[in-house]
Amino acid sequence: MPRLRKAVALLLVVGLLVTLVGCGGKGQNAAKQVKSEDSIIRITEDWPVFIDPGVGSKFSDSIALVNTYDTLVFPKPDGSVVPHLATKWDILDNGLTYKFYLRQGVKFHNGDEVTAEDVEFSMNRLLKIGEGFAYLFTRDVAGVKALDKYTVEFQLKKPFGPFLQSLVRLYILNKDEVLAHIEKNGQYGEMGDYGKKWLLTHDAGSGPYKVKEVKMEEYVLWEKFNDYWGGWDPNAPKFFKLSGSVEPITVRTAMGRRELEITDELQPLENYKTMDKIKGVDVATFLNGHNLNLMLNTKKAPTDDVHFRRALAYCIDYNAIITSIYPGSALSKGPVPAVLPGHDPTIPFFKRDLAKAKEELKQSKYYGKLDQYPVSLSWCAEAPEEEKLALLIQANAAELGIKINITKKPFGSMMADAQKLETTPNASLVFVAPHYNEAGSILMSRYHSSSCGTWEQMEWLQDKNIDNMIEDALATVDVKQRFEKYAQVQKALYDLCPTIWLFDQAEKRAYQKDYVYWPTAERALKKEKGCLPMGYDQYVHDMKVYPEKRLALL
Amino acid sequence: MSENRIILEVKGLKKYFPIHKGDKTLFVKAIDGIDFEVREGETVGLVGESGSGKSTTAYCVIGMYSVTNGTIMFKGKDISCASSQRPLELKRDMQIVFQDPGTSLNPQHTIYKIIELPLKVHGLAKGREMRERIVQLLESVELPESYLYKYPRMIGGGERQMVAIARALATNPSFMILDEPTSSLDVSVQAKIINMLIKLQKEFNLSYLFITHDLSLMRNVATRVVIMYLGKIAEMAPTEIFFQSPQHPYTQMLLSSIPVVTKEEEELKPKKIKSQGEIPSPVNVPPGCSFNTRCPLAKPECFEKDPVMVQVGPDHFVRCNLFA
Amino acid sequence: MGINLLKRIGLSIFVLFGLSILIFIISRVVPGDPARLALGPRAPEWAVQKLRQEMHLDKPLYTQYVLWLDGLVHGDLGRSLVTRRSVTTDIKEFLPATLEIVILSAIVLVFGGIFLGIISAKFTNSWLDGLIRVISYLGIVSPAFVWAIIFVLIFGYNIPIFPTMGRLSPGVVPPPMITGMYTVDSLITGNFGTFVDAFKHLVLPAIALAMGGMAQAARITRSSMLDNMGKDYIAAEKAYGIPEGLIFVKYLLKPSLIPTVSVASLDIAALFGNAFLVELIFNYPGFSRYGISAMLNKDLNAIAGVIMVLGVIFVTINIIIDFIVAYLDPRIGLAGR
Amino acid sequence: MGDLVKIQDLYVWFRVYGGYMKVLNGVNFSVGKGEKVSIVGETGCGKTTTMKAILRILSSQAHIPKGEVLFEEKDILKMKESEIKRLRGRGVAMIFQDPMASLNPVFTIGDQLAAVISHSGVQDLDKEKIRQLSINALKEVKLPDPERILGSYPFQMSGGMRQRICIAMALATERALIIADEPTTNLDVTIQDQILALLRELVTKRGNSLILITHSLGIARENADRIYVMYAGNMVEVSNNEELFCNPLHPYTEMLLGCVPKLSGGGIAEGIAGRIPDYLNPPPGCRFEPRCPYATDRCREEKPDFVDVGNGHKVACFKYN
Asked: Distance between CA atoms of B293 and A336, rounded to whole angstroms?
């Protein structure tokens, strides 16, 4: 009996060892030789990833589109745009007509040349489908027309100052290739499905990377497009892969195994700290033009009283927020994040000042009957950190005698609540991002009456004066004048205090500092001002990767 | 004896259990029309093999099973209804002791609690009285007071059965069903219990319906014996007469099968009939006389005609075609 | 047996029909506008409206059900809002991936569990038994995703011998689609290298997934073997001189496996649910992950499709296990005949 | 004369929490070739332990401090595994109390019979031969349609049929000794009668030795040549069949007989006061002493040995020496 027991134990141990060694052999013996597959940038991001410019608009889609397709103009961190597919352009009719002259000889991935017809087709397709980034254009664009092979003209319904900025979201598709892959029985009439099915897993772009493989729910893999008109640095990555998993443990392990170069921005704080400790891994922190707003319902008691709103604004401990809850973030100065072009730097920060808060409260009509007017506050269940914030605000407000009732809500419910004034709570914690990188985008989508009833404006401001100022600013084609007008709107809003701008959000991503050159991380290190539109920080063409340095880390 | 008052009267009692076999519904005829009565102060022995329906009869009488057909009269009241509709007073007056005291006593409760329960339910004792009454009940089954706080597992099988009897006595019943109370016990323990039951019967003027498969035990306990076979009564007679002149071939087979310890007993065993065959399943009761598959005296008519009960002597009834 | 099987299948279809109504109603009644969720908060209302029409969301519920059922009968489960493809296509792609894990996991669960249980019972109260029992306790109390995390850390990070992401290593070409299961397809096409690679990707997720059920099976096998060891028939078989080894592996094992198999069947069915977090951690594009992402995105057709397929799988597993139990335990098998 | 089995001064203890259960307390016992012997005793007196010792299938907690079990003059307790195996295969067969529990519920009767036959040590048995032997064994116990029974499972049989099958297994191959441990306890009296008659007939016909363990004095009387009465780990009395019932010597035997209800009536004795002793701390002298009305000081200190009162009638009680 004891002999058998020993034999079984031995069998178990040997079995385990054989498994370990047998399977481990390959990993350890892997030749320390650089292969071309090693020249790769791998990024994690949330799934799904839509690589169709007519469909995608989220973070992951943007990263894919930026690298697969070209646009007429290309954004700079300072908010300006530079020539890209278009070498130059004319703005005519007081900003109602834009005429672009295309670069000649630019090749699509299949070898076709990029022409004005492709631009016309791309804009029409986007408008017709109505999904993705179409919302940037549907309101203002009246039409588009290819004047000749290399000239294309856009007609606007009314002057729209930041039109050039919004064009970084018009990704140019190869018309012929898309038409060749249309499915007949679609919902777009003679255009069938407008190539939607084919473009789900294929690209028709001219960008620096061409789609090599799409594995649904897993990853998208791109390969360098050697004939890219923009040319190539010798150390530019040969491959680029976007993985659809953001599980902290998976991300961290992959970083440790050097199977991932840049992480997503959705990791918990703890995980960034852990990854920062891995040799050769650094965490890049940069402001991305998003900010967190405490939207106050200006039509509902007690937040309908400006003094009451200001009292709230003066009682919150902003420094505690940016040091312990959202480290790396910056204090907000007014409604527009400081990194966005058109931001007015003269607007002061909100500061915690209890004396001032009490003074404001005394002027409010609710003073003395605060207990009858509790404030309802919703936070977004998908962003768990917001709970700490909500509790902090609750505690701060309690010092003034203001009672806050906190509710956790899924974003879907928050969206539904925002549809009616009665159901919109007194206060809502919401992250806000610009549609295009300019102050006007935030001002329009946040405070113009047209956005009332959507999650982007739960203030229900409905102020004619503000509406007129915003419309006027946006219609101004001249940048300097436009920015001045933006500044006035920001000042006016600061006085109305419809929102408590809690902080400008910092985006965090861990990356392989030792063998990857990433321009955005470099800019963050140097604390350079400005930011790029969503997705452009991951423009792989400008990155560099050094596989031999990677091998040294293994 | 026969002038004593009738306590329990069972008439035409039937109990069928439906079983589903595929699409068909068959009936297990556990009891198929039986008549008997129990008189005051009497012990009626209900004897039969497993599957004869003797326990089912007990459960129908006590109300654990609803009755398919027929009537059960207890002290002149019809109690063929479901247990839940019986008055509490009736439940108090009629008690049952089960075969296996190991499972009929709650192992989590002390003996005190076990006996306390019926007293509480029927509101028979309160406060300090309660303890006194329980001790008194234990004394009546010859268990010392020290047993009050023991658990069933701490005492022997015989003693557990004593506790079960004490619990049954708690409500001062006049009628008790004893469902094979000693069949899982050794003879030395059985002797003690049987003697105690007899003593209690005299003391409290109890009537017993005593269910067993042991005829030699019946000889010493019962005043009247009822033999059941496949849901029907085969023979019924006062004990003395029964053992002197058993009439039914099945009764004779039973008697001849009993292992005995004295020559005297040997004499009493019928010699002509030997045990053969097994009791058929109550789902497939053979046509005619249900004993025909094992009966050494079966005639052709036994395979067609179900016999009726006939009286062959004073208080002696037999259900067999030989006597028709 | 044949008639019994047909009967069971007939009954199952009835059950699945009921299930289809239930899941359809549940999937449609959950709050939130699926079209809005699919197109994002900034999409213009007309585009959302168009999608609603396309999905028949503007029609009454029963019309929607009839249309959906009609599609179901024709093998068309509608279009997924997340992948923007036909749900049928998605299922064809993701189901084999998860089946691969679940099948391997079930094998580990059943055979591993029984093996450990036998060892434990054979050497009752030895250190080996103690070790197995401790592992079993851990296996039962820790959910599959905890094991997944532990395995990723140990075998992916500290001792990096197994891949921790995806179904194949980069650069390995997937085998041609036959069953959709990479390991099977690569073997069919004779591509052994791909098989090894695909198999290595399965090892950690499958074991992580199997741990709980395996521990359960081990415990049940152990206790039921110990229980049966005390039975008279084992004493009788010993008394008749049947070798102890044979008694152990044949006469003792078979009756002892009945409870194990019944419980294992539930555990195997539960694997599909537990697979979700495991697939997430191993970035494995499987059916469970697809199902959960469908629910999070209120991807109606995908939800209904996934539950429908799971329903069919559960019912099938149930039938299979019932027949295995009937084989092991003649009392059940014959009662059913 | 040639004793087939002879147990001499056998002690068997069981290791439990808190010490040893001293169950067998110097058992002396023998069975002659072709003899039918019965051991009678109440629950827990050590009958089954004695039989398990003969087959050496005691549980792993058992400990044998003293004694020997001779089978054909060889000590079973000192036998090697291979000898034990031969003994089990050819020498001894056992029939258990509960025929449901002693047949494996998930294998067919045929399978179980075949296993018993093929491990009986008889060489060169092919499948067909085993099948033939199985059928013969079933025919011998008067089971109808043996071929059908071979393919059936135990649960498809009635209790009586199952016990016939157990007997068939025991007698399927040639064995010197049959041990039947309460073979009819769970059966109805008519079936009990049939089974015992069958067992008696077959054993007599084949000239096997039989040890019939029972708690029923009646069964012992009708089926055995010689009867041992056992109490709390000791044989207290042994005698030829009729003698024991006409002239019981040991106080326990006498009282036990009084407790048996008689078909002839006459009431039942009061029973035996007290319980069997606690095996963890048994009385040092005669184990029946605490319940014995005749107990003396000597009984409290000394363990009585068998005294032969003539004609093979032995009793372990100080009353008789």
From this structure: 102
